[in-house]
Amino acid sequence: MTEDGYSLETCHHCRVRNGYSKMPDRYKQIDLIIDYLKPASIVEIGTWNGDRAIDIVQAALKHHTYVHYWGFDVFEHVADNHDQRELNVKPHTPLKDVRAKLKIFREQHPGFSFDLIKGDSRLTLHHPNLPVWSHPNTGNTVQLTEADLVFIDGGHSVETIENDFDRLRGCKNILMDDYYTPCNRGLCP
């Protein structure tokens, strides 16, 4: 039994399907990792509503005057079978709402800059003209494929996770939300 009350054999997706909503607070670990790595350029696959973006950037701004964030998500643009294919259980947040939230944060934190990229990461990560960041202090141009930190927490299908990892494998540090092993009833990948 874990400290959150779940059997070690019960996986996240089984808990969600069975109506359990309590999840372990693994996101505190991200703040610790950011304090250790001190990234100035961050990519998040799976921006959702923008709250995690703000948490991550706030932690990074403790170490740098300037932090750039690239956020990828389908936002409100979802194909009919997307949620089922990607094992998604969260509602979709419109891009305009996330952009507005991040603009308010930027007003309060002038060293923060961001790009939001809308669409399925299986396609958008392969776009030839992805935005770059020019660091205000150094003038160095940073490609998102060279980011200091990547957090992959978008689509949950093995194919999408592999795509996201393969495209961003050159980044300095990669955190992955999903790790699949069979549960005791064989219900999850």
Molecular structure report:
This protein is globular. The protein has 189 residues and is α/β, with parallel strands linked by helices. Strand 6 (149-152), helix 7 and strand 7 form a beta-alpha-beta unit. 32% of the residues lie in helices and 16% in strands. The strands form 2 sheets. A 5-stranded parallel sheet has the order 3-2-1-6-7, with helices on both faces. The chain starts with 11 loop residues before the first helix and ends in a 13-residue tail after the last strand. Residues 1-24 have low confidence and may be disordered. Helix 2 (27-37) runs parallel beside helix 3.
| End-to-end C-alpha gap | 21 Å
Number of strands: 7
Largest sheet: 5 strands, parallel
Global structural class: alpha/beta
Number of helices: 7
Helix content: 25-40%
Strand order of the largest sheet: 3-2-1-6-7
Q: Which stretches are poorly predicted, pLDDT < 50 over at least 5 residues?
A: 1-24
Mean pLDDT: 84
Instruction: Give me the Rg, rounded.
Output: 17 Å
Elements, N to C (H/E): HHEHEHHEHEEEHE
Q: How would you sum up the global shape?
A: globular
Strand content: 15-25%
